[in-house]
Amino acid sequence: MSWDSYYRLEDIHAWMDSLGAAYPKVATVISAGRSYEGRDIKGLKISFTSGRRSVFIEGGIHAREWISPATVTYLINELLTSSDPSFRRIAESFDWYIFPSVNPDGYVFTHTWYRLWRKTRTPHSTFCYGADPNRNWDFHWGEEGTSTNTCSETYGGPEAFSESETYSLSKMIESIGSELDVYLSFHSYSQILLISYGTTGQRSENFDDEYEIGKKAAEALSQKYGTEYQVGNSQEILYATSGSSSDWAKYNFQIPIVYTYELRDTGENGFLLPAEQIIPNCEEVMDSIVAIFEESEKLGYFKMGSNNTSQ
Protein backbone atom coordinates (compact mmCIF):
# COMPACT_ATOMS: atom_id res chain seq x y z
CA MET A 1 0.00 0.00 0.00
CA SER A 2 1.51 3.32 -1.05
CA TRP A 3 0.91 6.48 0.94
CA ASP A 4 0.33 9.05 -1.78
CA SER A 5 -3.32 8.28 -2.52
CA TYR A 6 -6.65 8.30 -0.70
CA TYR A 7 -8.02 4.77 -0.53
CA ARG A 8 -11.52 3.36 -0.55
CA LEU A 9 -12.82 1.50 2.47
CA GLU A 10 -12.48 -1.93 0.88
CA ASP A 11 -8.80 -1.25 0.15
CA ILE A 12 -8.13 -0.17 3.73
CA HIS A 13 -9.91 -3.24 5.09
CA ALA A 14 -8.06 -5.60 2.74
CA TRP A 15 -4.76 -4.02 3.76
CA MET A 16 -5.51 -4.51 7.46
CA ASP A 17 -6.43 -8.14 6.76
CA SER A 18 -3.07 -8.57 5.03
CA LEU A 19 -1.26 -7.13 8.05
CA GLY A 20 -3.01 -9.58 10.33
CA ALA A 21 -1.70 -12.37 8.13
CA ALA A 22 1.80 -10.90 7.77
CA TYR A 23 2.28 -10.10 11.47
CA PRO A 24 0.22 -12.79 13.23
CA LYS A 25 2.04 -12.46 16.56
CA VAL A 26 1.73 -8.67 16.66
CA ALA A 27 -1.28 -7.45 14.63
CA THR A 28 -4.78 -8.79 15.19
CA VAL A 29 -7.76 -7.72 13.09
CA ILE A 30 -10.61 -6.68 15.39
CA SER A 31 -14.13 -5.34 14.97
CA ALA A 32 -16.06 -2.66 16.84
CA GLY A 33 -19.38 -3.85 15.42
CA ARG A 34 -21.25 -2.93 12.28
CA SER A 35 -22.61 0.24 10.76
CA TYR A 36 -26.25 0.98 9.97
CA GLU A 37 -25.76 -0.38 6.44
CA GLY A 38 -23.97 -3.47 7.74
CA ARG A 39 -20.33 -2.58 7.14
CA ASP A 40 -17.65 -3.75 9.53
CA ILE A 41 -16.05 -1.15 11.78
CA LYS A 42 -12.69 -2.79 11.36
CA GLY A 43 -9.54 -2.09 13.30
CA LEU A 44 -6.24 -3.56 14.39
CA LYS A 45 -4.86 -4.39 17.80
CA ILE A 46 -1.08 -4.09 17.73
CA SER A 47 0.75 -5.59 20.68
CA PHE A 48 4.42 -6.50 20.86
CA THR A 49 4.19 -7.69 24.47
CA SER A 50 0.84 -8.51 26.03
CA GLY A 51 -0.41 -6.89 29.19
CA ARG A 52 0.73 -3.34 28.52
CA ARG A 53 -1.29 -0.21 29.11
CA SER A 54 -3.25 0.86 26.03
CA VAL A 55 -3.74 3.56 23.41
CA PHE A 56 -6.96 4.05 21.44
CA ILE A 57 -6.95 5.80 18.06
CA GLU A 58 -9.94 6.60 15.87
CA GLY A 59 -10.18 8.16 12.45
CA GLY A 60 -12.81 9.00 9.90
CA ILE A 61 -15.66 9.76 12.27
CA HIS A 62 -16.59 12.56 9.86
CA ALA A 63 -16.84 10.97 6.44
CA ARG A 64 -15.48 13.77 4.23
CA GLU A 65 -12.26 14.19 6.22
CA TRP A 66 -10.22 11.81 4.05
CA ILE A 67 -6.88 12.84 5.50
CA SER A 68 -7.96 11.30 8.81
CA PRO A 69 -8.14 7.61 7.70
CA ALA A 70 -5.01 8.22 5.63
CA THR A 71 -3.14 9.44 8.70
CA VAL A 72 -4.33 6.56 10.86
CA THR A 73 -3.33 3.95 8.27
CA TYR A 74 0.09 5.59 7.96
CA LEU A 75 0.43 5.41 11.75
CA ILE A 76 -0.39 1.69 11.67
CA ASN A 77 2.39 1.17 9.13
CA GLU A 78 4.86 3.11 11.27
CA LEU A 79 3.98 1.11 14.38
CA LEU A 80 4.77 -2.09 12.54
CA THR A 81 7.75 -1.08 10.41
CA SER A 82 9.46 2.09 11.66
CA SER A 83 13.10 1.69 12.69
CA ASP A 84 13.29 5.08 14.41
CA PRO A 85 14.43 4.36 18.01
CA SER A 86 12.18 6.96 19.61
CA PHE A 87 9.12 5.72 17.77
CA ARG A 88 9.98 2.06 18.36
CA ARG A 89 10.16 2.69 22.10
CA ILE A 90 6.65 4.15 22.04
CA ALA A 91 5.27 1.47 19.73
CA GLU A 92 6.49 -1.40 21.89
CA SER A 93 5.47 0.13 25.23
CA PHE A 94 1.69 -0.06 24.64
CA ASP A 95 -1.13 -2.14 23.29
CA TRP A 96 -2.69 -0.20 20.41
CA TYR A 97 -6.36 -0.29 19.37
CA ILE A 98 -6.66 1.51 16.03
CA PHE A 99 -9.73 2.14 13.86
CA PRO A 100 -9.06 4.11 10.65
CA SER A 101 -12.71 4.60 9.58
CA VAL A 102 -15.35 4.52 12.31
CA ASN A 103 -18.07 5.93 10.03
CA PRO A 104 -17.77 3.45 7.15
CA ASP A 105 -21.18 4.14 5.57
CA GLY A 106 -20.45 7.84 5.34
CA TYR A 107 -16.94 7.25 4.03
CA VAL A 108 -18.21 4.99 1.24
CA PHE A 109 -20.87 7.61 0.40
CA THR A 110 -18.15 10.25 -0.06
CA HIS A 111 -16.46 7.97 -2.60
CA THR A 112 -19.59 6.99 -4.51
CA TRP A 113 -22.12 9.84 -4.30
CA TYR A 114 -21.22 13.05 -2.49
CA ARG A 115 -17.62 13.92 -1.62
CA LEU A 116 -18.49 16.35 1.19
CA TRP A 117 -20.88 14.13 3.17
CA ARG A 118 -20.15 14.38 6.92
CA LYS A 119 -22.65 12.26 8.85
CA THR A 120 -23.74 8.65 9.16
CA ARG A 121 -26.32 7.26 6.72
CA THR A 122 -29.15 6.38 9.11
CA PRO A 123 -32.51 7.75 7.86
CA HIS A 124 -33.87 10.12 10.50
CA SER A 125 -36.63 11.83 8.55
CA THR A 126 -38.34 11.54 5.18
CA PHE A 127 -35.71 13.49 3.28
CA CYS A 128 -32.73 13.71 5.63
CA TYR A 129 -30.19 11.05 6.44
CA GLY A 130 -27.58 10.70 9.09
CA ALA A 131 -26.54 12.10 12.42
CA ASP A 132 -23.24 13.74 13.24
CA PRO A 133 -21.36 10.85 14.87
CA ASN A 134 -19.20 13.30 16.80
CA ARG A 135 -22.25 14.87 18.44
CA ASN A 136 -23.95 11.56 19.32
CA TRP A 137 -21.99 10.45 22.39
CA ASP A 138 -23.50 10.52 25.86
CA PHE A 139 -21.50 13.42 27.26
CA HIS A 140 -23.41 16.72 27.36
CA TRP A 141 -25.36 15.29 24.44
CA GLY A 142 -27.66 17.76 22.68
CA GLU A 143 -26.08 20.88 24.14
CA GLU A 144 -23.94 23.58 22.51
CA GLY A 145 -22.75 22.99 18.97
CA THR A 146 -25.42 20.38 18.27
CA SER A 147 -28.51 20.83 16.09
CA THR A 148 -31.95 19.27 16.52
CA ASN A 149 -32.65 19.71 12.79
CA THR A 150 -32.41 16.30 11.11
CA CYS A 151 -31.04 17.93 7.94
CA SER A 152 -28.25 19.77 9.75
CA GLU A 153 -24.65 18.62 9.45
CA THR A 154 -24.40 18.80 13.25
CA TYR A 155 -27.64 16.94 14.00
CA GLY A 156 -26.94 15.01 17.19
CA GLY A 157 -29.46 12.24 16.56
CA PRO A 158 -32.76 11.58 18.36
CA GLU A 159 -30.84 10.46 21.46
CA ALA A 160 -27.31 9.72 22.59
CA PHE A 161 -25.88 6.62 20.91
CA SER A 162 -28.76 6.43 18.44
CA GLU A 163 -26.25 5.54 15.73
CA SER A 164 -25.06 1.96 15.30
CA GLU A 165 -21.54 3.24 14.79
CA THR A 166 -21.22 5.28 17.97
CA TYR A 167 -23.02 2.74 20.14
CA SER A 168 -20.89 -0.21 19.06
CA LEU A 169 -17.65 1.79 19.19
CA SER A 170 -18.51 2.93 22.72
CA LYS A 171 -18.88 -0.69 23.77
CA MET A 172 -15.43 -1.46 22.39
CA ILE A 173 -13.96 1.45 24.33
CA GLU A 174 -15.80 0.41 27.49
CA SER A 175 -14.22 -3.05 27.27
CA ILE A 176 -10.71 -1.56 27.55
CA GLY A 177 -11.41 1.80 29.20
CA SER A 178 -9.62 1.03 32.45
CA GLU A 179 -6.45 0.19 30.50
CA LEU A 180 -6.25 3.42 28.48
CA ASP A 181 -3.51 6.02 28.98
CA VAL A 182 -3.91 7.82 25.64
CA TYR A 183 -6.83 8.54 23.28
CA LEU A 184 -6.26 10.25 19.93
CA SER A 185 -8.99 11.29 17.49
CA PHE A 186 -8.10 12.52 13.99
CA HIS A 187 -10.18 15.12 12.13
CA SER A 188 -9.68 17.88 9.59
CA TYR A 189 -9.24 20.69 9.00
CA SER A 190 -7.78 23.75 10.84
CA GLN A 191 -4.33 22.71 12.14
CA ILE A 192 -5.36 22.61 15.77
CA LEU A 193 -4.56 20.22 18.61
CA LEU A 194 -7.68 20.18 20.78
CA ILE A 195 -7.89 19.42 24.49
CA SER A 196 -11.07 18.39 26.31
CA TYR A 197 -13.66 19.62 26.94
CA GLY A 198 -15.65 21.20 24.13
CA THR A 199 -18.49 22.43 26.34
CA THR A 200 -18.41 26.04 27.51
CA GLY A 201 -16.76 26.70 30.84
CA GLN A 202 -15.39 23.20 31.33
CA ARG A 203 -11.75 22.19 31.03
CA SER A 204 -10.11 18.82 31.52
CA GLU A 205 -8.89 18.14 35.05
CA ASN A 206 -5.27 18.20 33.86
CA PHE A 207 -5.73 20.92 31.24
CA ASP A 208 -2.53 22.77 32.15
CA ASP A 209 -0.41 19.66 31.67
CA GLU A 210 -2.17 18.72 28.45
CA TYR A 211 -1.70 22.25 27.19
CA GLU A 212 2.05 22.15 27.87
CA ILE A 213 2.36 18.71 26.28
CA GLY A 214 0.33 19.97 23.32
CA LYS A 215 2.60 22.98 22.85
CA LYS A 216 5.63 20.69 22.76
CA ALA A 217 3.83 18.49 20.23
CA ALA A 218 2.97 21.48 18.04
CA GLU A 219 6.59 22.64 18.18
CA ALA A 220 7.81 19.20 17.12
CA LEU A 221 5.22 19.06 14.33
CA SER A 222 6.42 22.36 12.89
CA GLN A 223 10.05 21.34 12.52
CA LYS A 224 9.89 19.41 9.24
CA TYR A 225 7.66 21.59 7.06
CA GLY A 226 6.95 24.70 9.13
CA THR A 227 3.29 23.78 9.65
CA GLU A 228 1.81 25.72 12.56
CA TYR A 229 -0.81 24.29 14.90
CA GLN A 230 -2.80 26.03 17.62
CA VAL A 231 -3.35 24.28 20.95
CA GLY A 232 -6.39 24.66 23.21
CA ASN A 233 -9.91 23.43 23.76
CA SER A 234 -12.59 23.73 21.15
CA GLN A 235 -14.82 26.18 22.97
CA GLU A 236 -12.01 28.72 23.24
CA ILE A 237 -10.21 28.53 19.89
CA LEU A 238 -12.71 26.91 17.50
CA TYR A 239 -16.34 26.52 18.62
CA ALA A 240 -18.32 24.82 21.35
CA THR A 241 -19.07 21.13 20.90
CA SER A 242 -21.05 18.55 22.84
CA GLY A 243 -21.48 14.82 22.54
CA SER A 244 -18.01 14.17 21.10
CA SER A 245 -16.16 10.85 21.26
CA SER A 246 -12.97 12.15 22.84
CA ASP A 247 -14.79 14.12 25.56
CA TRP A 248 -16.95 11.08 26.38
CA ALA A 249 -13.88 8.85 26.64
CA LYS A 250 -11.92 11.39 28.70
CA TYR A 251 -14.73 11.88 31.21
CA ASN A 252 -15.92 8.29 31.59
CA PHE A 253 -12.54 6.61 31.92
CA GLN A 254 -10.42 9.45 33.25
CA ILE A 255 -7.92 8.91 30.43
CA PRO A 256 -5.04 11.24 31.24
CA ILE A 257 -3.84 12.09 27.72
CA VAL A 258 -6.59 12.88 25.19
CA TYR A 259 -6.20 14.97 22.04
CA THR A 260 -8.23 15.64 18.94
CA TYR A 261 -6.19 16.57 15.88
CA GLU A 262 -7.64 18.94 13.31
CA LEU A 263 -5.20 18.15 10.51
CA ARG A 264 -4.10 20.16 7.46
CA ASP A 265 -4.88 22.71 6.20
CA THR A 266 -6.37 26.02 7.40
CA GLY A 267 -8.89 26.38 4.58
CA GLU A 268 -7.04 26.76 1.30
CA ASN A 269 -8.09 23.23 0.33
CA GLY A 270 -10.17 22.36 3.38
CA PHE A 271 -11.70 18.89 3.19
CA LEU A 272 -10.30 18.48 -0.34
CA LEU A 273 -6.68 18.27 0.75
CA PRO A 274 -4.57 17.20 -2.27
CA ALA A 275 -3.16 13.70 -2.10
CA GLU A 276 0.40 15.01 -2.44
CA GLN A 277 0.05 16.42 1.06
CA ILE A 278 -0.69 13.04 2.67
CA ILE A 279 2.93 12.06 3.29
CA PRO A 280 4.13 15.48 4.59
CA ASN A 281 1.06 15.66 6.84
CA CYS A 282 1.68 12.17 8.21
CA GLU A 283 5.40 12.71 8.74
CA GLU A 284 4.84 15.83 10.83
CA VAL A 285 2.03 14.19 12.80
CA MET A 286 4.33 11.27 13.68
CA ASP A 287 6.84 13.78 15.07
CA SER A 288 4.12 15.32 17.20
CA ILE A 289 3.00 11.93 18.51
CA VAL A 290 6.53 11.16 19.67
CA ALA A 291 6.53 14.47 21.52
CA ILE A 292 3.16 13.75 23.16
CA PHE A 293 4.36 10.44 24.54
CA GLU A 294 7.78 11.66 25.63
CA GLU A 295 6.44 14.79 27.33
CA SER A 296 3.66 12.80 29.03
CA GLU A 297 6.26 10.42 30.41
CA LYS A 298 8.36 13.33 31.70
CA LEU A 299 5.32 14.59 33.61
CA GLY A 300 4.77 11.15 35.17
CA TYR A 301 1.62 10.05 33.35
CA PHE A 302 3.16 6.71 32.49
CA LYS A 303 6.50 4.93 32.29
CA MET A 304 7.31 3.53 28.90
CA GLY A 305 9.14 0.25 28.51
CA SER A 306 8.72 -2.91 30.55
CA ASN A 307 7.19 -0.99 33.48
CA ASN A 308 4.16 0.13 31.47
CA THR A 309 1.96 -2.82 32.40
CA SER A 310 -1.73 -3.12 33.21
CA GLN A 311 -2.46 -3.74 36.86
Textual characterization of the structure:
By secondary structure, the protein is α/β, with parallel strands linked by helices. The protein has a single domain, classed as Aminopeptidase. It is 36% helix and 16% strand. It is built from nine helices and eight strands. It has helices spanning 9-22, 67-81, 85-91, 104-112, 164-176, 207-225, 234-237, 245-253, 278-298, and strands spanning 27-34, 40-46, 54-59, 95-99, 180-188, 192-195, 230-233, 257-263. Helix 6 links the parallel strand 6 (192-195) and strand 7. The longest helix has 21 residues, at 278-298. The radius of gyration is 18 Å and the shape is globular. It starts with 8 loop residues before the first helix and ends in a 13-residue tail after the last helix. 51% of the residues are buried. The model has no long low-confidence stretch (mean pLDDT 96).
How does the SSE layout of this entry go?
Elements: H1 9-22, E1 27-34, E2 40-46, E3 54-59, H2 67-81, H3 85-91, E4 95-99, H4 104-112, H5 164-176, E5 180-188, E6 192-195, H6 207-225, E7 230-233, H7 234-237, H8 245-253, E8 257-263, H9 278-298
Parallel strand pairs: 3-4, 3-5, 5-8, 6-7
Antiparallel strand pairs: 1-2, 2-4, 6-8
Question: What sequence of helices (H) and strands (E) makes up the elements?
Answer: HEEEHHEHHEEHEHHEH
User: How many helical elements?
Assistant: 9
Please give the alpha-carbon distance between the first and last residues.
37 Å
Instruction: Give the CATH topology.
Output: Aminopeptidase
Residues in β-strands, percent: 15-25%
Estimate percent helicity. 25-40%
CATH homologous superfamily, by name?
Zn peptidases
Question: Reading side by side through the largest sheet, how are the strands ordered?
Answer: 1-2-4-3-5-8-6-7
Shape: globular
Q: What is the CATH-assigned architecture?
A: 3-Layer(aba) Sandwich
Average pLDDT metric: 96
Q: Radius of gyration in whole Å, from Cα?
A: 18 Å
CATH classification, class level:
Alpha Beta
Major sheet size, sense and barrel closure: 8 strands, mixed
Structural class: alpha/beta
Number of domains: 1
Question: Ranges with pLDDT <50 over ≥5 residues?
Answer: none
Oligomer class: single chain
Number of strands: 8
